[in-house]
Amino acid sequence: xxxxxxxxxxxxxxxxxxxxxxxxxxxxxxxxxxxxxxxxxxxxxxxxxxxxxxxxxxxxxxxxxxxxxxxxxxxxxxxxxxxxxxxxxxxxxxxxxxxxxxxxxxxxxxxxxxxxxxxxxxxxxxxxxxxxxxxxxxxxxxxxxxxxxxxxxxxxxxxxxxxxxxxxxxxxxxxxxxxxxxxxxxxxxxxxxxxxxxxxxxxxxxxxxxxxxxxxxxxxxx
Amino acid sequence: xxxxxxxxxxxxxxxxxxxxxxxxxxxxxxxxxxxxxxxxxxxxxxxxxxxxxxxxxxxxxxxxxxxxxxxxxxxxxxxxxxxxxxxxxxxxxxxxxxxxxxxxxxxxxxxxxxxxxxxxxxxxxxxxxxxxxxxxxxxxxxxxxxxxxxxxxxxxxxxxxxxxxxxxxxxxxxxxxxxxxxxxxxxxxxxxxxxxxxxxxxxxxxxxxxxxxxxxxxxxxxxxxxxxxxxxxxxxxxxxxxxxxxxxxxxxxxxxxxxxxxxxxxxxxxxxxxxxxxxxxxxxxxxxxxxxxxxxxxxxxxxxxxxxxxxxxxxxxxxxxxxxxxxxxxxxxxxxxxxxxxxxxxxxxxxxxxxxxxxxxxxxxxxxxxxxxxxxxxxxxxxxxxxxxxxxxxxxxxxxxxxxxxxxxxxxxxxxxxxxxxxxxxxxxxxxxxxxxxxxxxxxxxxxxxxxxxxxxxxxxxxxxxxxxxxxxxxxxxxxxxxxxxxxxxxxxxxxxxxxxxxxxxxxxxxxxxxxxxxxxxxxxxxxxxxxxxxxxxxxxxxxxxxxxxxxxxxxxxxxxxxxxxxxxxxxxxxxxxxxxxxxxxxxxxxxxxxxxxxxxxxxxxxxxxxxxxxxxxxxxxxxxxxxxxxxxxxxxxxxxxxxxxxxxxxxxxxxxxxxxxxxxxxxxxxxxxxxxxxxxxxxxxxxxxxxxxxxxxxxxxxxxxxxxxxxxxxxxxxxxxxxxxxxxxxxxxxxxxxxxxxxxxxxxxxxxxxxxxxxxxxxxxxxxxxxxxxxxxxxxxxxxxxxxxxxxxxxxxxxxxxxxxxxxxxxxxxxxxxxxxxxxxxxxxxxxxxxxxxxxxxxxxxxxxxxxxxxxxxxxxxxxxxxxxxxxxxxxxxxxxxxxxxxxxxxxxxxxxxxxxxxxxxxxxxxxxxxxxxxxxxxxxxxxxxxxxxxxxxxxxxxxxxxxxxxxxxxxxxxxxxxxxxxxxxxxxxxxxxxxxxxxxxxxxxxxxxxxxxxxxxxxxxxxxxxxxxxxxxxxxxxxxxxxxxxxxxxxxxxxxxxxxxxxxxxxxxxxxxxxxxxxxxxxxxxxxxxxxxxxxxxxxxxxxxxxxxxxxxxxxxxxxxxxxxxxxxxxxxxxxxxxxxxxxxxxxxxxx
Lengths: 222, 1138
Prior knowledge:
The complex is a heterodimer. By secondary structure, chain A is mainly alpha-helical. Helix content of chain A is 77%, strand content 0%. The interface between A and B is large, with 58 and 65 residues.
């Protein structure tokens, strides 16, 4: 038995035992199992956080290399600069700064608040709002009736859009709203449930394969 | 015959050499040897010797320990009836022979010879002057004599007088043969003893017991029931009995070969046909030759014996032909035996003394062997000699019925020689040829001597001459062949000498091809009886004894395929052992006659007929050989040695031989293309354990190696061998690389010599003796090998010396053959998969696809649009964008624009409100923000309304965010609501990585982390102090634009903890969350901006309208979108669906 095979066996034992403990903690009402589950979850969070930290370092490395190589220097400099500002301002202890600038540092400092409040939030909101224009253009180009199915889709889209507009037009409009609600509650929900069931079944199967050792993502073997 | 047999037989078998033991089981044992053994076993012992007295049933025969197994095995235990067939009578001629032999040849008187018939005879019986093969007659007696005097006496008594005399004389005069004891084959030794002893018994047989019938034929007489009168001690008789006789009565001996055991087993399933058939009438375990002997009349007579009798009766009605004329027709080997004296004295038979003088010992024994299995012609000779010597008498009908014709003649002789009123003289007597008649006359002239003193008179004159020559010229041949020839019997020497001298006539006739239909003139030099044989139709090509062999074989063996495998294996084993014997068995152990027949071959320890045979091939292909023999049996019942021998070399050959050959040619035409046994031996090896249809004919009991090669050797001789070219090789040998093959060169030469038809080169130019084989005449076995013929390299085909040669199998040594197909080259055969029926539409599409593929590719065409079209295309998009902006701006700034839009009242919103509203004051709710600023416009109104509602109800809010931006959103809302970042009812726990593990971690200890704003230790905050665990929370409110995260909460937390969950989701994921709401897994649901607006409506006391205002703008924008969709559809229809 070589070391590699022994290593694989150890990994498999750890993975299976962890999965079984977590699974049993959901099935069996036991404080000990839940405690063990909590320990295992904390280890997972630590590992994930560390992975996130490694990912941040990797991004910096990549863009640093680009700056050094002169490839997309501006964008890389912006990324590296923004990261440095936020990271330093957020992690820099308030005690080390002059008395006039303690509010600028830390997670709740002014720097962090400014960046989030006046840069990140408006930018993201603006980008998402542009979706309205894209949807309008797509509606002009995409919703063309080529067949009966496209006609049904076209009609459905129109009804849902109209039903989502809560115009105070009396009972007639309410009918449109009701149609919209029916569409969402019956056909749309049916499709959504089907998708969800598929997801759940896939999750169960994947969990079983992991517990049975059929799949070993923790090793280099499939 | 004896019951004590097994004990003796075991010893005997153990002492036998293996190769002979194997040969015993082999079926190839020549008939004449088989019969010799049988007859010897059945010949009654001499009355004068206790050892020779007839054995009673259950009494062991002579313990011929030196006897070869195969011969012993041939002595299959006869049936009970046969066991009771004790030697009772001896033909007179036998007595005469015995007396004649006992008569002193040089210096010995008749009285001495007469006394020699007594106990002293066998002191001399081991005389060395005897030919080796006959010396074995006395060998056993000698061995026993050395042990004790009593044993010596018994041995002496077991030898007939005549043989004693001959041996004594020869021993004195011909010491050359002194070492014969070692060279004498055991089987012959035992045979000789037994033969002699039982002949003597027969001679002295009382007339009342089957008068004139030899004991070995007594079994054929149905009336024979009496025990022989001779009262010799049984033990001595047993000791003096040869092994093969002992084994006759001991079929179950351990050492016995299979076929013997099977024969002994009644109704043995595996018994060969010939055994089964033989055993039917009497005992099932009895072999044919035993059965036939025991059968009455012609049925009980062996074929070859019956043939002789028939021939004598039917074809030789004129016995008075002059012997001088016969001499010209006699073969040289006979002439050599007869000698000048014989020729001169003929037809008058030599006087007793003269005949005795002329009688060579080996012929004397041959005479004995007549009764014991000697060749038919010798039997016939003796018969005729005796029958002519006596007047015709009224034969006893019982005797006549019980005896075959030729034996009837013997019995007649006995009757005449032994004073007996019922002296039988069969009608055959008159049919004897002159030269044989002379023998009879000689006997007639001195009947008293024959009867009482000397049996020498019974010996034919020509035989006596032979003997005389032997005596006078103990070493007639040059000593070069020396020992071998010296050890040869004379008759074999006579065969060889003509070849050296230029061939005897009859041999020359054999060598020279003659047409099958020889002119009658050719028979001029033949004796009458031979001429008569020639003229007959039925056996026109064969002497009767051969024809009868054929007939009887066919008649008695209708099922040749039922041969037991045991017999075959025994035969094959015999050949294998025989092949081994070439290397293992020393020459001294080999039978002399085999050794001498071998002449001056390199392998002097092997007889010639074995020299030419590749023993390996023989051993390997024995079964095939048998198969071939069987296949050709229908056409050829004659022995192969007669049928397949080489072409006649001389026209002067006796007619009977020519006729034999001619008849054989016709009958064995299928096998004439090649020496069958040789071809088969080398062509196709057959698994040894494979059962092969057995040769059913008794004539086929002659092994092929005895039938064919020996005759080939005799017929062809070295001249033929020298003249044979490679073209004479069988076709299957043409392409062989003999230099590298394992085939023995001598063997191939033999094949060439034996090949009668395929020769195209140096074969003698004379008219070919045999016609080229027709295709139909090809034996079945050869036809089955046609595939090999196809593989055979054609003549003249250059042989690729570099190509690998076959190392095994029938194609061994051949080059340039196609090798077997490499297994890797054989592709796996694809499995058949039926094509499922394809719809027509698919077929049409497939055809269309094929057409498209078949079309040449179109060149890319640059789409050129007018600048105006491009402007219009981009202008339309900009128009849409502008329209959207205009609508939204108009809705925002136009007065009373909101009056048209009202917040809907949704059940989900109401449930959400009710759930939050149900929280008691001072309770704690967990607010989870799971959205980023992109969804800020849709979800933040919900979050704000929720926070204000909770704060309004004095419900503590512990906020945690799955997004980094969510922390800030919550913090802004807290400040917006209360004016502070934290407080008694607010606790922002910060960011929680979106993962189930972190979710569980948070649930496990909600306030273990650090706060982002305010307190470093959340547990030390006012609200944190209230939260001891997840159970301290009263409600989970998730505001999310990610359905998966909502499911985590629902599935991971909602199912584990007794806590209500409500969600505020974006409109895009609402359809995926509504099922959970419908399943009551979540207690309330705010869907998008409309839900937030409706929720604000619920919490009117809070006076919020963010959602309501945004909802109006959203409504106008959606109206614009609907308008665009409708216009787009209409435009599409207007353009004709382009």
